[in-house]
């Protein structure tokens, strides 16, 4: 072979390689395209604007659709999120402008017109995905026809033309919008058949925005000056609350605690009355009632704390971000299963500090303590969703996947954690010996009872996070992300710190009046913030435009599950911090 032939062969091979590399680099998997390439577009769902949970499959409305309609294979998280992606007739090839392209000719019967009119009356929107970017548009519009002395007349119109505005940078898509043309509409006020020609246009424009930041616009509302001011005000309010609580704890409790320690064993009855918490040193470490249930609370609370912290780690790593279809639900399901080993270990190890037998019952309670109520509430909500025909209704196959995941992953890991906790058990570290018979608790005024302490222990942390909680609820039951993950994580840490500080203070007050039953009360006082969170959920719903049984059920059902999780987490924080404090003061007493 001559040098010239070898050079030609080399050029041919290089050109083939470049062609293959170009085709590999241009695909939906890496979001890179060449001019004219097909870009996947899927229609997802429709629903009323004011009810985010009330969504239906796109073709529940008589839109133009392919024959047959092909459903996209969805992940577990996408199904749990209510996504039902299917193919569409729209063809939006990369960087190909289109003007008044015919989608289809369709004869709308009277029933079809009635469906579209009901959708327009309820402010129905549609959601689509283009290159994994979600975008929304409205089905139609309402106009006032005329005014009379008796009533106003309304006319309802269906958009028959949709314009897609797409922004691109190089060979990648950055942003997409869908706008119904208000000048190209069909009157659907009356239930009469009508012939409609549905059309669409596509306009491509360049942008300097980077591909890596294309998801930022979905959380742009959090970056607006007014929202940033509110976030910072909430943060500063929480920090001030912490500083005041620390100062209060230092001035009122630590100073008095030092005096109590100095007056130990004086033999003076009057001095002894001032330090009543020393009288109960033989009862303060007495094991609580319902020991198995208490250990299960500690185990599940620790598990949920681990789960939440893991979620924040995933957010910091960029794995979870707004509108990454189904990833949040998938992460929640998988992390709950994986962290069940934490629940089993914590429950069994804590139980074995009190007794070497019976830890199996505590682990069993930990397995159903949160999953049980969650399953019951989810089943009820699924029945409601099925009756509405909403996309929130889980298919039978998805339910079986969740059941099998719980049976073959969650339970084995829970048992494994329990066995490890039993094998590495240790004795309960008690600075003082426990008396055989409990000391009688003196009568206490009403403001020292559990409900009053729960009110104080829950109201102060709630007041520190209420502004951020408003944004969180707006994100959960809205279409915009109003809460920045970084600020949300900071507020979560602040909530834990405030709960711990208050629990220590309230426990000290309780012990000072010779009330030694502090174990369960520290859990209730620490978790009482969740009660205020649920009460605020009621207030949020009444102030919103949400309506209907489906939306009502989903808001209060899933908020109840979320607040219950916070009760377990914060209750665990309250007890753990109180236990550290009680051990410290009685160890200091013993050393003297």
Automatic annotation (TrEMBL):
Domain of life, source organism: Eukaryota
InterPro entries tied to this protein: EMP70
Cellular component terms per the entry's GO annotation: endosome membrane; Golgi membrane
Bilayer topology term: Multi-pass membrane protein
Annotated TM spans: 232-254, 293-321, 333-351, 363-390, 396-424, 445-467, 487-511, 523-542, 554-575
Pfam families membership: EMP70
The keyword Transmembrane helix belongs to this UniProt entry's keyword annotation: yes
Keyword Mitochondrion: no
Key words, A-Z: Endosome, Golgi apparatus, Membrane, Signal, Transmembrane, Transmembrane helix
Subcellular location field: Endosome membrane; Golgi apparatus membrane
Gene Ontology terms describing biological process: protein localization to membrane
First and last residue of the signal peptide: 1-26
Family: Belongs to the nonaspanin (TM9SF) (TC 9.A.2) family.
Protein's name in the database: Transmembrane 9 superfamily member
Organism: Gossypium hirsutum
Upper classification of the organism: Eukaryota, Viridiplantae, Streptophyta, Embryophyta, Tracheophyta
């Amino acid at each position: 072979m001559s040098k010239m032939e070898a050079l030609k062969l080399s050029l041919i091979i290089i050109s083939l390689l470049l062609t293959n590399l170009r085709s590999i680099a241009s695909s939906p998997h890496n979001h890179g395209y060449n001019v004219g390439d097909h870009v996947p577009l899927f229609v997802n769902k429709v629903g009323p604007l004011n009810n985010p949970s009330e969504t239906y499959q796109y073709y529940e409305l008589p839109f133009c659709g392919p024959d047959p309609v092909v459903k996209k294979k969805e992940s577990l998280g996408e199904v749990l999120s209510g996504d039902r992606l299917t193919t569409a007739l729209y063809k939006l090839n990369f960087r190909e402008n289109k003007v008044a392209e015919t989608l289809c000719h369709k004869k709308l019967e009277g029933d079809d017109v009635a469906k579209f009119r009901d959708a327009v009356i309820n402010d129905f929107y549609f959601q689509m995905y283009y290159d994994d970017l979600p975008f929304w548009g409205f089905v139609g519009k309402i106009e006032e026809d005329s005014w009379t002395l008796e009533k106003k007349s309304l006319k309802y119109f269906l958009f028959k033309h949709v314009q897609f505005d797409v922004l691109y940078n190089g060979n990648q898509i950055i942003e997409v919008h869908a706008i119904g043309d208000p000048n190209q509409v069909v009157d659907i006020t009356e239930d009469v058949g009508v012939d409609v020609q549905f059309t669409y246009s596509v306009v491509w424009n360049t942008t300097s925005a980077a591909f890596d930041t294309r998801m930022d616009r979905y959380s742009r509302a959090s970056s607006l000056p007014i929202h940033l001011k509110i976030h910072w005000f909430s943060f500063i309010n929480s920090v001030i609350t912490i500083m005041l609580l620390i100062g209060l704890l230092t001035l009122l409790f630590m100073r008095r605690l030092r005096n109590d320690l100095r007056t130990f064993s004086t033999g003076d009855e009057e001095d002894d009355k001032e330090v009543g918490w020393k009288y109960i040193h033989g009862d303060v470490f007495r094991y609580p009632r319902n020991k198995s249930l208490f250990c299960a609370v500690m185990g599940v609370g620790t598990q949920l704390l681990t789960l939440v912290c893991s979620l924040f780690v995933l957010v910091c790593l960029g794995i979870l971000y707004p509108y990454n279809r189904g990833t949040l639900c998938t992460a929640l399901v998988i992390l709950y299963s994986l962290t069940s080993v934490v629940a089993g270990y914590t429950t069994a190890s804590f139980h074995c500090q009190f007794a070497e037998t019976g830890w199996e019952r505590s682990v069993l309670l930990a397995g159903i303590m949160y999953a049980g109520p969650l399953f019951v509430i989810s089943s009820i909500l699924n029945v409601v969703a099925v009756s509405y025909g909403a996309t929130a209704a889980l298919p039978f196959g998805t339910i079986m996947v969740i059941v099998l995941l719980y049976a073959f992953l969650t339970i084995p890991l829970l048992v494994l954690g329990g066995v490890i906790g039993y094998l590495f058990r240790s004795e309960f570290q008690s600075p003082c010996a426990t008396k055989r018979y409990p000391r009688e608790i003196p009568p206490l005024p009403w403001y020292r009872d559990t409900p009053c302490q729960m009110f104080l222990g829950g109201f102060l942390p709630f007041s520190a996070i209420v502004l951020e909680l408003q944004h969180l609820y707006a994100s959960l039951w809205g279409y915009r992300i109003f809460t920045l993950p970084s600020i949300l994580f900071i507020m979560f840490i602040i909530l834990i710190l405030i709960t711990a500080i208050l629990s220590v203070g309230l426990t000290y007050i309780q012990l000072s009046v010779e009330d030694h039953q502090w174990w369960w009360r520290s859990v209730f006082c620490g978790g009482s913030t969740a009660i205020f969170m649920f009460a605020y959920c009621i207030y949020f719903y009444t102030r919103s435009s949400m309506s209907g049984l489906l939306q009502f059920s989903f808001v209060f059902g899933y908020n109840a599950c979320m607040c219950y999780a916070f009760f377990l987490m914060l209750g665990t924080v309250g007890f753990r911090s109180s236990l550290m404090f009680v051990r410290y003061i009685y160890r200091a007493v013993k050393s003297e």
